[in-house]
Amino acid sequence: MTKRVDSRISRGSAELTILALLAKGPLYGFEIAKRIEEDTGGALRFELASLYPMLYELEKRGWLKGQWEANRMGRDRRYYSLTATGRKGLAPLRREWRIFFQALDRLAGVTRA
Amino acid sequence: MAELASHLEDCYETLRAQGASEAEAIARALDRFGDPGQLARGIRHAKRPEGRINDRTRQLWLPGLASLAAANLLLMALTCTSLQPRLVAERSTAWFPGLALVAAYLPWLSSQPLFGALGAWLSYRAGGGRAMRLCSGLFPSIVMLACWGFFIPVSAAVEKHAWAMQHPASLVLGALVWVAPAMMGLLLGSLPFLDARGFRNIERASRCAART
Questions:
Q1: If you ran DSSP here, which 8-state letter would residue A2 be given?
Q2: Per-window interface: B 61-120 vs A, CB < 8 A
Q3: Ramachandran region of residue A42, left (φ > 0), alpha (ψ -120 to 50) or beta?
Q4: Is residue B124 a contact partner of residue B195, using CB atoms and an 8 Å limit?
Q5: What is the Cα–Cα distance from A26 to A66, expressed in whole angstroms?
Q6: Dihedral Cα B8, B11, B14, B18, nearest 10 deg
Q7: DSSP secondary structure letters along A14-64
Q8: Which residues of A are less than 8 Å from B34 in CB distance?
Q9: pLDDT value at B8 more than 60
Q10: Contact, B1 vs B39, CB < 8 A?
Q11: What burial letters (b/e) apply to B25-62, b meaning 16+ CB within 10 Å?
Q12: Considering the domain A7-108 in this protein, what is its CATH number?
């Protein structure tokens, strides 16, 4: 079983995690949390209390757009999708994280540990 | 609210579908909720339109300055009322000439918890984290420490203050007397606001008491 990542680290990477996930297609809050947990093998898990403020923050910034739609079960859910601004913002964010990981790896040998 | 409720509902139903009992599904869904205070602060912050002042100003500088202003106004008032020449002459004795100063200092010192609480509470209201709340509560002492650690020694050196230059220990003593006890008082007042969960319990209890 994969060990959970410390919440301080996952909080810092939340923006990238959410944007990268929504770049693949629109999802609603519960699906976002579920997909993050599943796709990372349980290493990353967002509590509702940290997920929604982040979604609203990104929406306020204009990177995400939320709209109510019926899901497969016919229930109304608020689907979030990446806007053009968000897509534009994701690329430099990915670059920054890549630089960060490379720097951390040079310093602490993270990938060899 | 509808969105958060539907999230919990989905969470509950998924757990039930995985074979969890009703009680277990409810408990595990609530466990994934996280800190309600963090959620409320986060949503308030995200929904608030961008103002002219940023979060650090709202959560640290304004509460800290309010606490500093209140503490210093009281000190000024006490100094004006207790350290008039007539009173100093009356109160100072041969065995303790600084008695008049103590008469102004002690009431000021005993009021420090109030100012610590004021700074920490204002920061809490603005959504400040624990560090912000602590710094806001201790702000008057941090400023006082800067005065005794930097401004007063520098000014004594620039003005060639003979007595201060000959007795540098007096500066250390001054810093100890004006900073350490006041900081303890401010910390005491800030403590209830440092643990947000604890403070919410106090708020809840006082609301219940008011209702009954």
A1: P
A2: none
A3: left
A4: no
A5: 9
A6: -120
A7: HHHHHHHHHTT--EEHHHHHHHHHHHTTTS----HHHHHHHHHHHHHTTSE
A8: 47-50
A9: yes
A10: no
A11: bbeebeebebeeebbebbbeebeeeeeeeeeeebbbbb
A12: 1.10.10.10
A74 to chain B, closest Cα gap in Å: 13
Tell me the HSE value of B185 on the side-chain side, using a 13 A CA sphere. 22
Residues 6+ apart with CB under 8 A from B119: B63, B64, B66, B67, B133, B136, B137, B138, B139, B140, B186, B190
- The tokens describing B197, both together, are 């969960």
Q: What is the pLDDT of residues B147-156, one digit of tens each?
A: 988 888 888 8
Instruction: Give the residue from B190, B191, B199 showing the smallest Cα distance to B37.
Output: B199
**Structure tokens of A68?**
């109510």
Q: Which residue has the higher pLDDT, B61 or A3?
A: B61
Mark which residues 19-58 of A lie under 8 Å from B by CB: 29-30, 33-34, 45, 47-50, 52-54, 56-57
The tens digit of pLDDT for each residue in B158-177 reads: 888 877 778 888 888 888 88
Tell me what ipTM this predicted complex has.
Answer: 0.73
Report pLDDT digits (tens) over A19-64: 999 999 999 888 898 898 888 888 888 888 888 888 988 888 889 9
Using the beta-carbon criterion (under 8 Å), do A50 and B34 form an inter-chain contact?
yes
Interface list for B 5-34 with A (CB within 8 A): 6-8, 10-11, 14, 32-34
Task: Name the token pair of A47.
Answer: 């509590």
| Domain boundary assignment for chain B | 2-47, 63-211
DSSP A4: P
